[in-house]
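Comment thread on ticket #2218

A.B. wrote:
> Attaching the input chain for the structure job we discussed in standup.
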Amino acid sequence: MTIRKILIATLMLVCLPAFAQMATVVDAVETTPNNIILPATINGMVTFKPCVGECDKEHKRARLTDATIFAIDGRAVKFDQFRRNFLAKSRSDESYALVSYELDTNTVTRIEISR
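C.D. wrote:
> Ran it. Output below, let me know if you need it in another format.
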């Protein structure tokens, strides 16, 4: 019986960090490209308004990392290509953007723009 308890306690100690990492909470904000300000480099802060149109919410800021996924119309691209297309689409009224970010670390996990 004691061996079982020790084994269970050991397994819990080993698995606890894995469960803690899985508990990150991600929020997603749907907005327009006009409400997003991209940094010049991938290691900067993105600023975005968490709503579309007229609203009284303040802008949010979150950090981009090397792990951030950039997507255009559902297709993952590199930051440089994303930035070029972002600047072209930001003037279109039919485009939308989705910004997903981790609440606890305030890092962007994914930015997608689509028509």
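A.B. wrote:
> Thanks. Noting for the ticket: The beta strands are 26-31, 36-37, 45-48, 60-63, 69-72, 75-77, 96-102, 107-114.
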